[in-house]
Amino acid sequence: MSRAFVKEQDDAQSVEELPDRLISPHPNFVTAEGLAQIEAEVARLSQAHAAAVAAADRAAQAAAARDLRYWTSRQATAQLVAPPQDAKAVHFGSTVTVEREDGRRQTFRIVGEDEADPAKGTLSHVSPLARALIGKAVGDTVRVGNGEAEVLEVR
Fold first, then answer.
1. Exposed, middle or buried by CB within 10 Å (0-12, 13-18, 19+), for 82?
2. Does the pLDDT of residue 8 top 80, yes or no?
3. So where are the chain's domains?
4. What DSSP character marks residue 152?
5. In the CATH scheme, what is the code of domain 95-154?
6. CA-CA distances (angstroms) from residue 65 to 9, 23, 32, 47?
7. Interior CA angle at 135 toward 91 and 110, to 5°?
8. Any long-range contacts for 136-144 (C-beta under 8 Å, 24+ apart)?
9. Which residues lie below 8 Å from residue 58, measured CB to CB, with a gap of 6+?
């Protein structure tokens, strides 16, 4: 048996053995936008997987199948949470403006884990800051890292 044959076989095995993406143990709360994003990702990955099968691209098949398993699972466990009806306290789906001790003001919307992107102003409901903010009202302070932040607005 040549070394080239062994190497090819090793590569084929590594393609087929992609580890599954980790699924969060937390409830899969989502906003309407988050659910739409999950559904779009399932559709996109279904097409990508079909294209990889048609092209006999085993690496692309394995990657698409792994991601499709993840997103299908997230779709099946998604718990759609209606937008908050009041702005008296912070809830899942609320948009919150805080002021840190150094004077920085930041505005975040509390969303599901898969739709969170702090750089775009969305925080996962399981993040430390979001957990600290849930249930708080305007004027309340929360611990943020080594400092504090005051809740300025809840919408």
1. exposed
2. no
3. 10-80, 95-154
4. E
5. 3.10.50.30
6. 20, 15, 25, 11
7. 35
8. 136/89, 136/90, 137/88, 137/89, 137/90, 142/98, 144/98, 144/100
9. 12, 15, 16, 52
Residues belonging to the chain: 155
pLDDT in tens, 11-51: 544 456 789 999 999 999 999 999 999 999 999 999 999 99
pLDDT tens digit sequence for 75-134 = 999 999 999 888 899 999 999 999 999 999 999 999 999 999 999 999 999 999 999 999
Which residue in the block uniquely carries the two structure tokens 């969305």? 122
β-partners of residue 117 are: 122
Confidence (pTM): 0.83
Is the pLDDT reported for residue 6 higher than 90? no
Q: Which of 124, 149, 153, 117 is nearest to 137 (CA)?
A: 153
Dist. CA 94–CA 138, nearest whole Å: 12
The amino acid at residue 4 is A
Contact (Cβ atoms closer than 8 angstroms) between residue 56 and residue 78: no
